[in-house]
């Protein structure tokens, strides 16, 4: 079970390291600070920089929170395990599963990619692919998305990385789809591409388009398709139900 430990903002990693050094490792499975990848521009290039997802908090996975609490009292730095109705409680199973789905094995939320059509945000890849509905604001200049999620018993603002490839009107997008679909029809009628597996998108914003299947992960039900949508080919992840082979 995941419990949330409050500490001083900006000192999450330092405080967690002190706790790791003081606590009996048999009392917990792991401690971690949830992070996200932020795109930052310096030295004339964009760089991936890790930032704290929930400033002022880190997590401990334990089945013996009472013993952990007892040993945390011996830590001189600020540590306070969050409570629910005055009772120390883990986050809910739904919250834990949501975070697991957003983070990788290193507890990092990778940067998502997408584009904007009219007022719609279309996520092509990354952890936001199945959660675009919680996006409240997109900052294209900083390449971030501001979310609001039900967490810690309240609506909590969160910022994660989101790179917007393009912004189009509904009319521009439909024209682009028509042009690219015509290109694929001409290409499939010709010769020289026997090794490619063409698929058709059945639903969603890309419905009716075709692309080249380049990778599959059946365990996660992720089918990565290369679509020649913008100036450069765009890789989009679909579920198996969203695509079908082109006959």
**What is the N-to-C succession of helices and strands?**
EHEEEEHEEEHEEEEEEHEEEEE
| Largest beta-sheet characterization | 5 strands, mixed
The CATH superfamily title of the largest domain? NusG, N-terminal domain
Reported CATH architecture of the largest domain: 2-Layer Sandwich
Give a count of the beta strands, DSSP E runs of length 2 or more: 19
Count of DSSP helices? 4
Average pLDDT for all residues: 88
Question: Low-confidence parts, pLDDT < 50 over ≥5 residues?
Answer: none
Counting structural domains, the number is 2
Q: What structural keywords apply?
A:
single chain; alpha+beta; Alpha-Beta Plaits; SH3 type barrels; 2 domains; 5-stranded antiparallel beta sheet; 4 helices; 19 strands; elongated
Describe this structure in words.
This protein has helices at residues 12-22, 65-72, 93-102, 170-189; strands spanning 2-6, 30-32, 35-42, 45-52, 57-61, 80-81, 83-84, 87-88, 108-109, 112-117, 120-125, 135-139, 144-151, 154-168, 198-201, 210-217, 222-227, 234-238, 243-245. The protein is α+β, with helices and mostly antiparallel strands and 247 residues long. It has two domains: 2-167, 2-Layer Sandwich (Alpha-Beta Plaits), CATH 3.30.70.940; 170-245, SH3 type barrels (Roll), CATH 2.30.30. The strands form five sheets. It has a five-stranded mixed β-sheet with strand order 11-10-14-13-12. A five-stranded antiparallel β-sheet has the order 18-17-16-15-19. The radius of gyration is 22 Å and the shape is elongated. It starts with a strand and ends with a strand.
């Amino acid at each position: 079970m995941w419990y949330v430990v409050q500490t001083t903002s900006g000192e999450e990693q330092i405080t967690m390291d002190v706790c790791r050094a003081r606590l009996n490792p048999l009392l917990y499975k792991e401690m971690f600070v949830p992070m996200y990848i932020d795109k930052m521009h310096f030295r004339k290039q964009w760089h991936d920089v890790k930032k704290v997802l929930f400033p002022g908090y880190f997590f401990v996975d334990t089945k013996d929170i009472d013993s952990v609490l007892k040993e945390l009292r011996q830590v001189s730095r600020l540590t306070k395990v969050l409570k629910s109705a005055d009772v120390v409680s883990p986050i809910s199973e739904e919250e834990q599963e949501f975070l697991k789905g957003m983070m990788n094995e290193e507890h990092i939320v990778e940067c998502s990619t997408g584009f904007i059509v009219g007022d719609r945000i279309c996520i092509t890849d990354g952890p936001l692919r199945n959660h675009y509905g919680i996006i409240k604001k997109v900052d294209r200049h900083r390449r971030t998305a501001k979310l609001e999620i039900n967490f810690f018993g309240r609506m909590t603002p969160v910022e994660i990385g989101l790179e917007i490839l393009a912004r189009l009107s509904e009319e521009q997008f439909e024209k682009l789809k028509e042009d690219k679909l015509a290109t694929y029809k001409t290409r499939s009628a010709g010769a020289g591409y026997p090794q490619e597996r063409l698929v058709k998108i059945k639903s969603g914003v890309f419905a009716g388009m075709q692309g080249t299947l380049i990778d599959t992960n059946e365990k996660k039900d992720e089918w990565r398709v290369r679509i020649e949508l913008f100036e450069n080919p765009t890789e989009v992840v679909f579920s198996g139900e969203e695509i079908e082979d082109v006959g």
